[in-house]
Amino acid sequence: SSNEHKLNFKKSKEACLSYIQDALLQKQWKRAAEFLTCYVESLEKDYSREHIGPSEIIWRIGTEILWHHSQSCMKEFNCFMEQMKTLGVKRYLKVCLEHIFHLLCNGQIDEAYQNLSLAESWRFGEQTAIQDKEMKLIQAYRGLLDYYSWSKQKNILLENGEDGFSDLAVEQEMHGYFRKAAVNLKEIIKIPGVWDIFVKCYVDLLEFYGDHNEARQVLNEYAYNSKFPANPNAHVYLYQFLKRQGESKKSLISALKILHDIVPSHELMIDFNTMLQKSKKRKKRRLGLEVIFTGLDYAGWKENAKAWSCLARQVKQIVISEKHLDWIKHEWNSRKDWWPAFHFSRYLAKRNWQENKSLSYEKALVAGILLGKDCKYFKYVSHQGCKAQLKRFRMLKKFMNRHSLVYLRISG
């Protein structure tokens, strides 16, 4: 019967999709391709009996298989994507974008630009308005490629130096690319979203032509507009711009303070700590200590020699002056239960000594102050340093002997 046929078809379709999923998860691309072929053939045979819109499934799965399949080539991929574009106007621009990404990943810049231009000229009644966001992305990526062409022309101009009229054509072409890139890049970054690469390129264009006020406005909007999602990179770009412009330390510290609140383990926190340590304000110096302690809470910082050097320098200054030991005590209280195993084990002392003696010195200084001279890390590293007759390690041992009571005050 018709109903029984429909039921069997539905079961076989679901089973086929399940096999495809299993093959994809196991990265069996050839097997997945065979099942997808069966899936498409079964739909073709039964399409008249039941109206099904499987084009997105075929597009998604087929793209994944062709991306990874050992025997696939660009000609096949291009052919497949062109077929997918005809399967449904609702997904036309999304398929175009994916096709463009694939071309870019394979270094086919000119082909990607041609596809972008074709997609931008696409019109299909009401669908054009519905897919307005996708169209803006198409235009934005065309702007990105115009920026790429502008950058190439700029480099040619800079390499040739001032050759007078010989570079006039290059300069005119470069300005043409600038105008096209600027228009499209400016439009996309008005929409709330994460547009890192577009913002960077647009700011580069503006800075090259000396429009620093516009660049500042763009970066401030990107970093501080509440309509945009929280984005650490927005504050990184703003900080880097302010630094290039020679802005005051107050402005730089302000930009990094927000970045610290979002990503306390960011690599720029070392710069942040350095600026705070140079401040005459006690509140900022204390914040600097907190910043570097917090950074070292993260596994990615465990062997960061610069970070340990910053911490060692600051705690050493505090110990020598015998002022603000309560700052160290405050930071240490929440870490004394887990930092010894995390940072100061005998195993780490051996490894650090073998791989980076400078790192082991900085860590040994901090370990000695926080845990005393009987700490496993300090004992091992200072012994190895003195055994190797390294002067700085003998000085380290003398320093700890002189300030041995500091540990008791910090530990309470």
From TrEMBL:
Q: Which GO terms describe its biological process?
A: transcription by RNA polymerase I
| Listed InterPro entries | SL1/TIF-IB_Component, TAF1A
One matching Pfam family, short form? TAF1_subA
Gene Ontology CC terms, in alphabetical order? RNA polymerase I transcription regulator complex
What is the official name of this protein in its record? Answer: TAF1A polymerase
List the source organism: Toxostoma redivivum
Which gene carries the instructions for this protein?
Taf1a
